[in-house]
Task: inverse folding
């Protein structure tokens, strides 16, 4: 009975009625013609015509195509043939979450591959010469959501301006705007000191649930964020997984909207065995824009160890030490208690990737050799010109290689095949090693000796 009550409380705590700032949220189905629309999550979307008075737009609805992966929004669209402005109400002293939804499907004379446009918000450049169709192709998606966390703007109105490029047009399917808590305070600059970041605007690049499933918006902690599975971004050895019941997670020092309980109920770790753990790094790699600053938040929750200095590990960002001795239990105060660390990294014009790597540290002589991670957020920071715009399309360098190999569902270059072959070979060797070590330890236990960690 006690377990049932806990599960019910968990489900209630993650339901949409408790959405942070629900009373001020604005969900606009752009181009929706008649009345409101309810999505399968139970959210109500309203027509956007109240917030723009442009006479040079075209609105339409379109049927649902079950063959395509589809966002959970009404199937409507608005096209812009000239600059168009939306005026959306905001609180001047609050941070807001803003999302743009794009489903680039052909409609009448509007070919999405010929759509190039820019979007700004109160002079903050969000998108520049953006083509949703190319970006979706680059990400192998049928739709894309651009998400921004906007610092207080000291005004009561958010002016969203769509500007088609010369000879082109713009479009949008939906917009979301709601107040959010200020989750970003300070961050450690790689190789330097801590700086305040709460006045910065951010664009979400990646948000991962490490070691678990993709967490959909209804299961977030009230901010309707999606936390994707991390396996696509792992390189080399994938480590091992630990999972627990979300209701066991205990928030002590941080507000619950930081991340959902489910995020902390899973983690990816290395191994209990010293020889295996020291033989590799846990590494994630992300394709990003050069000459930009990025905010990186790493989420931790130890589901296994109980005392400080049972494990300690190094955290590397692009090969440089960001944390020489990460001790999750010392940071959080106990088992099943979430914690996180924030970092700021700047990439030169030659850098287009960010890597995050973990490796056991022996500096403090911990009891075991291990490392773990529960979640990761990677956000782009506004540059000195007030821009959050990205290259078009995202990850274009990756797909230049993929397009060289025609007629394959998942195209890879010869170099990629060699890399994957090496990884699979290494993984096979690792599995054999694990089995041998386990058998060896079992024999030692039979002989009355302790395992060698």
Result:
């Amino acid at each position: 009975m006690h377990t049932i009550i806990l599960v019910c409380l968990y489900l209630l705590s993650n339901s949409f009625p408790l959405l942070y700032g629900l009373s001020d949220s604005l969900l606009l189905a752009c181009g929706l013609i008649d009345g409101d629309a309810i999505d399968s999550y139970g959210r109500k979307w309203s027509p956007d015509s109240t917030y723009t008075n442009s006479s040079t737009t075209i609105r339409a609805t379109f049927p649902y195509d079950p063959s395509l992966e589809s966002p959970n929004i009404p199937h409507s669209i608005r096209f812009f043939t000239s600059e168009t402005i939306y005026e959306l109400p905001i609180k001047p002293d609050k941070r807001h979450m803003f999302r743009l939804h794009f489903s680039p499907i052909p409609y009448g004379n509007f070919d999405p591959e010929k759509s190039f446009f820019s979007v700004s918000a109160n002079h903050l450049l969000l998108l520049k010469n953006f083509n949703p169709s190319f970006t979706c192709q680059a990400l192998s998606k049928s739709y894309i959501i651009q998400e921004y966390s906007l610092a207080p703007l000291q005004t009561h109105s958010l002016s969203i301006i769509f500007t088609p490029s010369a000879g082109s047009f713009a479009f949008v399917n939906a917009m979301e705007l709601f107040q959010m808590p200020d989750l970003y305070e300070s961050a450690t600059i790689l190789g330097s000191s801590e700086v305040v970041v709460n006045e910065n605007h951010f664009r979400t690049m990646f948000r991962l649930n490490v070691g678990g499933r993709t967490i959909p918006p209804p299961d977030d902690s009230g901010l309707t964020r999606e936390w994707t599975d991390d396996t696509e971004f792992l390189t080399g050895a994938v480590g091992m997984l630990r999972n627990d019941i979300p209701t066991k997670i205990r928030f002590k020092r941080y507000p619950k909207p930081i991340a959902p309980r489910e995020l902390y109920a899973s983690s990816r770790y290395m191994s209990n065995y010293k020889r295996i753990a020291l033989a590799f790094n846990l590494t994630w790699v992300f394709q990003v824009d050069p000459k930009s600053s990025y905010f990186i938040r790493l989420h931790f929750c130890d589901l296994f160890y109980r005392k400080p200095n049972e494990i300690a590990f190094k955290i590397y960002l692009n090969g440089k030490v960001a944390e020489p001795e990460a001790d999750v239990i010392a940071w959080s105060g106990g088992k099943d208690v979430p914690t996180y660390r924030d970092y700021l990294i700047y990439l030169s014009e030659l850098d287009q990737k960010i890597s995050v790597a973990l490796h056991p540290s022996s500096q403090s002589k911990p009891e075991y050799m291990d490392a773990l991670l529960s979640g990761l957020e990677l956000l782009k920071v506004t540059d000195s010109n007030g821009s959050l715009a990205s290259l078009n399309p995202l990850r274009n360098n990756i797909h230049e290689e993929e397009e060289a190999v025609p007629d394959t569902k998942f195209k890879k270059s010869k170099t990629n095949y060699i890399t994957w072959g090496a990884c699979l070979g290494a993984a096979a060797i690792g599995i054999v090693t694990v089995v041998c070590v386990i058998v060896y330890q079992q024999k030692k236990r039979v002989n009355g000796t302790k395992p060698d960690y």
